Amino acid sequence: MEKSLDDIQREVDQYISQFKEGYFSPLAMLARMSEEVGELAREVNHSFGEKPKKTDEADNYIELELGDILFITVCFANSLGINLTEAHDKVMHKFNTRDANRWTKKDTD
Known about the structure:
The protein is mostly helical.
């Protein structure tokens, strides 16, 4: 069964709410997000770039790094009371209006 963004935000909130510490501060979450993006960059570089992994390095998969970024993004949004579905809709509206003719569209035949 697929989950909606609302489902994911609720699931993360239920997880975080069981701990006294709760959500980290926005600044701490931004630092954590930056760290996770760096880990994704490292994995992408190993998979598609010129820097192969050392033989003793563990496999961290791009999928897991993207999952970590999704988790911290949801934590960030939840802590600030942001509904990610609404945020997504606003961003798509922006792309569909401002950038409507920015890229070359595929033929629809």
